Each structure stands twice: as structure tokens, then as C-alpha cells.
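Before a colleague's protein record goes any further, I have to sign it off. Thanks in advance; the entry in question is below:
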Amino acid sequence: MTDEFKSIDKEDIALLKFPTTDVLDDVDEIKTRTSEINRALSLGNLEHSKIKIFFEDIESKMVVDTTVWGVTDKNVMLKQGVMIPIHRIYKLF
């Protein structure tokens, strides 16, 4: 899976444009993503552990190695106010 995703620095995510469509269409995959987000939030807040987030913007698939600091109903929040829309995330681990 990681071969098709290019690495990006957290700071560069703020420059990306995200479509409104979801990258996942399977209900079970969406539920798994929600569980992975909650786990990443716990790891970020309790242990300051980094996690890989696989996501897609308007142009390509990317991966970032970062700490999740917060979650809203629509976004995963990283340090310095950087956000990734949940509906554009494939997987977190």
C-alpha cells in the first residue's frame, strides 16, 4: 500500500486542496477508519506517538508521519492547526 503514496511534510498539508467526495465507499471500511482515528487520537494525546496517515488530495495519494492532536466531526487536527478532512483519509496506523 505504501508504494503508491508519496511522503509529505506535515507543514505542506495546509497548501493542499481537498475534494468533497469520500475516498472510501464501503461502510465497513468507513467504520474501521473511524476506529483508527480514535486510536490515533488516544496515542497522540496520551503518548505523543506518531502515526502514519494515508490520504488523498485533489491531485495524488500521500502519507504523513505525524501526531494526531484532535478530531472534529469533519477533520483530523495536527500540530500548528493543520487539518486533514476525515473523508479524504484511507487508513491510519
Notes: The two ends are 12 Å apart (CA to CA). Helices lie at 27-47.
